[in-house]
């Protein structure tokens, strides 16, 4: 009984249907710090890929991917800070909550961009380069129209967008890095359990943030190693 009471200090009751969960002050702090600490590393990582780029197309790709990565952690942090200190920021809180959801769609698209732009793809798979952004735009329209109304549908959209572009990756002539890509995807999927566990597990959303950070790190490592570092090494050998 004492253990249950101690958990109640760190966790509120589950939210009712079509309502957002209200974290405790401890959960608010964890939600902020778990992504705030990754903002600077994300910018550094983008700069590193940009420096390793050999041509304009690689630099653009590094910028698109890096901005998606940075925006994810930055917008998430700002939203959680505003939510934590929301006394006179109701409209701004809603605005950043919508932005937080929208950024996830564009982050998924940006995460696929290096693979779709810098690897040779089959004729059908090549269309995924623009289709993944079309899906992000469709997800954005959905969020603006049905924000917090159909949470299961929204989660299904995220998962569909995460898995559907992966179906074309097998058409690559060079499949190096796909194991890391799959590993990162698995980490995201495991984290979804905590994403949907607010009010059941203390600090569930912060734990979800940790899973996002781990998966993003695995994907960044694969992009750095197989798409940028390898190309840079080839260029040095040619010199």
Give the overall form.
Answer: globular
N-to-C order of helices and strands: HHHHHHHHH
Helix content: over 70%
Distance between the termini: 70 Å
The top-level CATH class is: Mainly Alpha
* CATH architecture label: Up-down Bundle
How much is the average pLDDT? Answer: 85
CATH topology: Rhopdopsin 7-helix transmembrane proteins
Percent in strands: under 5%
Low-confidence stretches: 233-239
Radius of gyration: 19 Å
Largest sheet: none
Q: Report the structural category.
A: mainly alpha
What's the structural domain tally?
Answer: 1
Q: Report the count of strand segments.
A: 0
Please tally the helical runs, counting DSSP H or I stretches of 4 or more residues. 9
Membrane topology: Multi-pass membrane protein
Pfam families: HlyIII (PF03006)
Keywords: Membrane, Metal-binding, Transmembrane, Transmembrane helix, Zinc
Organism: Perca fluviatilis (European perch)
Main attributes?
239 residues, mainly alpha, 74% helix, 0% strand, disordered C terminus
Please provide a written account of the structure:
With 239 residues, this protein is mostly helical. It is built from 9 helices and no strands. The chain has one domain: Up-down Bundle (Rhopdopsin 7-helix transmembrane proteins). Belongs to the ADIPOR family. It comes from Perca fluviatilis. This is Monocyte to macrophage differentiation-associated.
């Amino acid at each position: 009984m004492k253990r249950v009471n101690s958990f109640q200090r760190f966790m509120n009751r589950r939210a009712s249907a079509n309502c957002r969960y209200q974290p405790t002050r401890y959960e608010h702090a964890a939600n902020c710090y778990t992504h705030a600490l990754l903002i600077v590393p994300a910018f550094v990582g983008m700069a590193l890929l940009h420096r390793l780029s050999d041509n304009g197309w690689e630099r653009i790709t590094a910028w698109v991917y890096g901005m998606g990565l940075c925006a994810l952690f930055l917008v998430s942090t700002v939203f959680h800070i505003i939510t934590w200190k929301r006394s006179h920021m109701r409209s701004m809180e809603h605005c950043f909550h919508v932005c937080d959801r929208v950024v996830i769609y564009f982050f998924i698209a940006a995460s696929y961009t290096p693979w779709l732009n810098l690897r040779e793809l089959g004729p059908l798979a090549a269309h995924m380069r623009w289709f993944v952004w079309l899906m992000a735009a469709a997800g954005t329209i959905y969020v603006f129209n049905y924000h917090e109304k159909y949470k299961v549908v929204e989660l299904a959209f995220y998962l569909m967008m995460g898995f559907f572009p992966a179906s074309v990756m097998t058409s690559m002539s060079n499949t190096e890095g796909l194991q890391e890509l799959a590993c990162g995807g698995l980490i995201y999927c495991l984290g979804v359990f905590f994403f949907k566990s607010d009010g059941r597990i203390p600090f569930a959303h912060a734990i979800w943030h940790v899973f996002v950070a781990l998966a993003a790190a695995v994907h960044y490592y694969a992009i750095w190693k197989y798409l940028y570092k390898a190309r840079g090494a080839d260029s040095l050998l040619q010199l």
